ABC transporter ATP-binding protein (Rhodocytophaga rosea), 293 residues
Amino acid sequence: MLHLSQITKIYPGNIAALQNINLNIPKGLFGLLGPNGAGKSTLMRILATLQEPDTGSVTFDGINLRKEKNALRQVLGYLPQQFGAYPRTSAVEMLKHFAALKGIHGKKREQVVESLLVKTNLWEARHRSINQFSGGMKQRYGIAQALIGDPKLIIVDEPTAGLDPLERRRFQNILSQLGTEVVVLLSTHIVDDVEDICPQLAIMGQGKILQSGEAKPLINKLKGKLWTIEIEKAELGELQAQYHIISTRFKSGGLEVKMLSDTSPSGAVCAQPTLEDVYFSTLLENNQLVAFD
Ligand SMILES: Nc1ncnc2c1ncn2[C@@H]1O[C@H](COP(=O)(O)OP(=O)(O)OP(=O)(O)O)[C@@H](O)[C@H]1O
């Protein structure tokens, strides 16, 4: 269990990146969802021991992050948002190198590297240099590297951004499999990633946790309160004055609008809520949804 208590981080210029973050994250895949600038990467870097919070505490299975950094690093696997430059060295040689740095040698090292290459579907490409890999292969290499040493806490920061649907699914499958064994924290602004694979999640905005829990009950809370209506674009202002609009989408010349209401708005149809609706309605409730036009 990963336990975060009252984590705060203020950057120079009084930018409150994290404000009193409290979270309990159990074994499995946990999605941290939030718009750009919400504070996700700052939180990920703190959990990866790369940055100090101003206040608060983090413990993982009894290890205190601020007092026992090295102990936490022993059980940590981190895939950052930006990997930096990719080496010209082959994937297999790089993994061997990082395994050696983690104190894994000899036959054991061969076995670990082989199993990671197979797990991430890179066995066939193992002798190619990483800088020639596609975006998806680079991400899979990144997770292979993060998995050296059997981490018990895996942190991945926006891993599927820019991946094509097949690569995204491959990556999701790798994470899902890991989630059956250890704590995997997935930070993303892609709602579908969380909906597809994370049983639990938190929604962040402007440095705060706005909502957290199991996906299904959060979705069910919107049942009977979510409505869709198709209108002309010019009618949007009037509707906005009357209802809480959470999203709009152009559809066959008109505009499909989703809105929240306890009673049935005239001409609207009751809609089946999704995690995306939970996400938008949470941002709306917290005045963090940009106005529609
Ligand atoms: N080194 C820094 N110095 C000053 N401000 C920073 C620094 N890093 C991040 N910020 C600010 O802190 C806030 C949170 O940024 P952070 O990168 O953690 O958010 P994020 O949710 O990961 O966003 P994104 O999805 O765009 O990466 C933003 O307002 C950002 O501009």
